[in-house]
Every structure is written in C-alpha cells, then in structure tokens.
Design a protein that fits this description.
Blueprint: H1 3-9, H2 24-35, E1 46-51, H3 54-61, H4 68-73, E2 76-83, H5 86-96, H6 99-109, H7 114-139, E3 142-146, H8 151-158, E4 163-172, H9 192-195
Antiparallel strand pairs: 1-2, 2-4, 3-4
Helix pairs in contact: 1-7, 2-7
C-alpha cells in the first residue's frame, strides 16, 4: 500500500476492538519514530508517555470526557506533553544543542513572553502528533487524536511536574462495526483546488 493509500484508509477511530492488541515491536517502532520527530532548532521540548497499564488507563478514561470508551478499548494511549519548566529547557539545550541553535533560542525565542515561548513549544509537539498519526496509518494501526481530555488531571495521574499534557492519542485496531470508518462514512475533505495552490 502506498502512503497515499494509507492516508486514504486512515480515519479518526470512534470504536475499538478491545480483543485486538498491537504487537510489541510496532509499539517500540512508534516510540523510535516519535524520538526522530523534527523540531525547530532540534529543540525537542516534549515527552511522549505510552500508557497501557489498566489501572492508569482507567483513571485517565475518567478525565477524558466523551473519549472514555476509546481509552478503555484501545491498546495504548500516547500522551503528548510539552516542557513546562523554562529553566529545565534552557539547561537541556545548553547541554545538547550546538552553539548556533542555542544562540537562536536566546536571540529570537527567549525575549518573548512565557506564554509565547510555550506556544512555540506547543507547535513542536503538534509536529510530533502529525508524525505519529502518519506512522500509524503506514503501519496499519488505527488512531484517535484527542484534545477532549482534562490536561491538569492527566498530569496529576501521570505525575508530570515539569511537563504539561497537550493532547492524547488512542491507538489500537478498529471495531469492524465502527460507523466512522471510510467504508461506512466516506472522508469529507475540501476540494484539492481549494487547498492546494501551484505557482
């Protein structure tokens, strides 16, 4: 299957088959893929938490609004968090990044407000979200990106202190009866000429 076909086949899964599990090797591949996600100046202001422990999943499901059953029936929930501690971030880049990247941060990013800096972090994390969804499509894994969660409660449950939850993704295998899959509910996208310009 080509990547285009994989993207045509993928969709936001609404109902999972709890009896189907993802192979351990594929989970490990997804972890490596997320680690390789690009970010501005290679800043990597993130943490990705793979949750499959039943007790933790149960707790998270209770603070996930309409997404409760997705967490309970999918194989794993991946929580995307951005660093929330600016001092820790600056120590991280001083240690890990080349001088040019650090200087870019100091000159262009650091003078901004804390809210603007964290918004810049958020953009990097959402790059990783797109990478994960694309990788899942290519690997035949179904996925549900969810902002319909309670980030502060996620942080408490996961004991995150220096990071804050932005979005979570359930991954697993679709229930054959899921009414949202393309064979039952064709994809709705704007026309190509409305979103693509060629100059």
């Amino acid at each position: 299957m080509s990547f285009l076909e994989s993207m045509q086949h993928r969709y936001t899964t609404k109902k999972y088959d709890a009896s189907k599990k993802i192979e351990k090797q594929k989970i490990e591949e997804l972890q490596q893929i997320l680690r390789l996600t690009p970010s501005s100046i290679n800043s990597q202001p993130w943490k990705f938490t793979f949750v499959s422990n039943p007790d933790t999943i149960q707790k998270l499901s209770e603070v996930s609004w309409i997404n409760t059953n997705k967490l309970l029936d999918s194989d794993t929930t991946v929580v995307f968090s951005r660093i929330n501690n600016l001092s820790l971030f600056e120590k991280q880049i001083e240690k890990e990044l080349p001088e040019g990247a650090v200087n870019y941060y100091k000159e262009y990013i650091k003078p901004q407000s804390e809210a603007q800096i964290k918004a810049w972090f958020d953009k990097q994390v959402y790059l990783a979200l797109g990478i994960l969804l694309s990788a899942c499509a290519e690997m035949g894994i179904d996925a549900t990106p969810m902002e319909g969660i309670e980030p502060e409660n996620y942080d408490k449950i996961l004991n995150h202190t220096d990071y804050t939850t932005l979005v979570a993704v359930c991954i697993g295998h679709r229930d054959p009866e899921d009414s949202n899959q393309p064979s039952k509910n064709p994809k709705s996208r704007r026309a190509l000429q409305d979103v693509i310009e060629t100059i």
